């Protein structure tokens, strides 16, 4: 929202269908950091309108012609429980995704 000054509902289904090479497992789960790496290498994550959620694993249907939002720089891992490192990550890189 900050970059584009508008809300863009992004496609979860693209991650479900297309991110297996990044150690994600469709509906069986994955890691946010690996999803960000996929998004960076794929050239972006498209919108929900372009690639709607189906709640099942499907063949990847993403193509470079679809509107997409990019992730510059990929992912940064921080030490478990290190709040100072987390603050630094937010300051340096923007939003933080947490998995446990």
How does this model look, in words?
- It is globular and about 40 Å long.
- The chain has a two-stranded antiparallel sheet.
- The protein has one domain: Cathepsin B, Chain A, CATH 3.90.70.
- 29% of the residues lie in helices and 4% in strands.
- It has 100 residues and is mainly alpha-helical.
Core attributes:
single chain; about 100 residues; mainly alpha; Cathepsin B, Chain A; two-stranded antiparallel sheet; 3 helices
Total DSSP E strands: 2
Number of individual domains: 1
SSE order: HHEEH
For the record, the CATH architecture stands as: Alpha-Beta Complex
Number of continuous helical runs: 3
- Which overall shape is indicated by the principal axes computed on the Cα atoms? globular
Can you give the helix content as a percent range? Answer: 25-40%
Major beta sheet, strand line-up: 1-2
Q: What's the CATH class, please?
A: Alpha Beta
Report the β-strand fraction as a percent range.
Answer: under 5%
Multimer state: single chain
Average pLDDT across residues?
Answer: 87
Radius of gyration: 14 Å
> Structural class given helices, strands, pairing?
mainly alpha
Assigned CATH superfamily: Cysteine proteinases
């Amino acid at each position: 929202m900050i970059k584009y000054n508008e809300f863009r509902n992004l496609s979860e289904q693209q991650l479900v269908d297309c991110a297996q090479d990044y150690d994600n497992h469709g509906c069986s789960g994955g890691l946010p950091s690996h999803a960000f790496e996929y998004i960076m290498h794929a050239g972006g994550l498209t919108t929900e309108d372009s690639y709607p959620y189906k709640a099942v694993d499907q063949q990847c249907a993403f193509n470079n012609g679809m509107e997409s939002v990019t992730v510059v720089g990929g992912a940064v891992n921080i030490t478990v429980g290190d709040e100072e490192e987390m603050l630094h990550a937010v300051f340096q890189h923007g939003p933080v995704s947490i998995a446990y």
